[in-house]
Amino acid sequence: MKHELDRTRPIWRQIAEIITDRIASDTYPVGSRVPPVVELSAEFGVATSTVQKAFLHLKQEGILRGEVGLGTFVSAPQAPTDH
């Protein structure tokens, strides 16, 4: 399924938003493996580096986590901490 992406906004950010929406709608439930970068780059019609940038952003946000040799998974939501 190809997506129409808005070429006036950063593509990686739109992909990150789509992945976040899929997590929110349980398309990618917590703990599940998200499709590989190559598969998502084909789906969106973009370079793998663009999807990798979206993944990196979502990992930094704590939404995704990578496991070497296994793939990228949806992280459990972190409880807010009081400092």
Write structural notes for this entry:
This protein is mostly helical and 83 residues long. It is 42% helix and 10% strand. It contains three helices and two strands, in the order αααββ. It has a two-stranded antiparallel sheet with strand order 1-2. The chain is globular.
Distance between the termini: 44 Å
> Which term fits the overall shape?
globular
Q: Structural class, from helix and strand content? A: mainly alpha
Q: What is the rounded Rg?
A: 13 Å
* Low-confidence blocks of residues: none
Number of strands: 2
Report the average pLDDT across residues. 91
H-E string: HHHEE
| Tally of alpha and pi helices | 3
Q: DSSP strand (E) fraction?
A: 5-15%
Main-sheet strand order equals 1-2
Report on the biggest sheet. Answer: 2 strands, antiparallel
Helical percentage: 40-55%
